[in-house]
Design brief:
Length: 305
């Protein structure tokens, strides 16, 4: 039997990384590439030293291999390139060659998002996490249909619920969004237009959090103060009711006394009487009395005659 033909070892780590990305159906991270390279064991008769170099590769060496592969594909101009989206790497055809690929695969023209859906998607991308009501405040129209379209295309997703009243849903972008627009991460959105800056996710999320709950000690103190206030209010209200009842009883007694006995002026009331009549009016009263006496005497004389 003739000896089997031995397959030569790869010439470089860059060559291994390129083959892994080409064969993978899903994008791969640098860590996944490193683990895949380290998982291969040397076979009998192979150069152990070369295999040890690959088996002990570091994350830094994988990053250098990825950069080298990207530059090589760019120089070669072979119709596809290395793309990094969301921390993952994949091989992608050049956009300029897309029409030929679709013609060969007999694919229809790709659907395009309408202007309203694109505006809604841009607001979510720059302001996430964001609630539907805030999107409507910015656009000034209902966005229910636009959100449904973006959800069906898996460009946005639910990232949680707000702790505000009603607990509205919060929306954010997906990995497919990064893949579709060729973005390595969301920070690249700021590079597209310097006038638009993405909001800080942590500060944005703080807007949808309610005030922290008070500690148990603070709650106990508030309840104690509340109970003390209620007891004070009750104690202050009871005497007032009693006083009103006593006043009603005293008024009834006084009315009964008034009905049974006629009112008589007392000495105390006489002592407090003040004659504030002016003196000039007193003199006139005396003159009037003298005139009345004279008239009476004249009448008596006439009767005698």
């Amino acid at each position: 039997m003739s000896d089997q033909v031995k397959i030569p070892l790869p010439r470089s780590l860059q060559e291994i990384v390129g083959s892994l990305l080409f064969a993978s159906q899903d994008p791969l991270t640098a860590t996944e590439l490193r683990d895949a390279v380290r998982a291969v064991e040397p076979e009998e008769g192979e150069n152990a030293e070369v295999m040890d170099v690959y088996k002990t590769c570091t994350s830094r060496e994988i990053d250098e291999a990825i950069k080298g592969l990207g530059k090589a594909l760019e120089v070669a101009g072979c119709g596809f390139r290395l793309v990094c989206t969301g921390g993952t790497y994949r091989l992608q055809t050049e956009p300029s060659c897309g029409r030929y690929v679709r013609a060969m695969l007999k694919l229809d023209r790709p659907s395009r998002l309408g202007r309203a859906s694109l505006e809604t998607l841009a607001i979510i991308a720059y302001r996430q996490p964001i609630a539907k009501s805030e999107i409507e405040d910015i656009r000034g129209v209902d966005v229910s249909a636009n959100i449904k379209t973006l959800m069906d295309l898996q460009l946005i997703r639910l990232v949680g619920r707000s702790e505000l009243p009603g607990h509205p849903f919060l929306y954010g972008t997906t990995q497919i969004f990064l893949d579709h627009f060729g973005l390595a991460n969301l920070q690249q959105l700021n590079e597209l237009d310097p006038t638009l800056q993405r909001s800080n996710p942590r500060l944005k999320a703080e807007q949808y959090k309610r005030v922290e709950k008070k500690t148990e000690l603070e709650k106990a103190a508030e309840e104690a103060n509340k109970e003390a206030g209620e007891t004070q209010d009750d104690s202050s209200q009871v005497p007032e009711v009693q006083d009103v009842e006593q006043q009603d009883d005293s008024l009834q007694d006084i009315e009964a006394q008034d009905e049974s006995s006629p009112a008589k002026p007392t000495a105390e009331e006489d002592d407090f009487f003040i004659d504030d009549t002016p003196d000039e009016f007193d003199d006139e009263d005396e003159d009037d009395e003298d005139e009345e006496d004279i008239d009476e005497e004249e009448d008596e004389d006439e009767d005698d005659e």
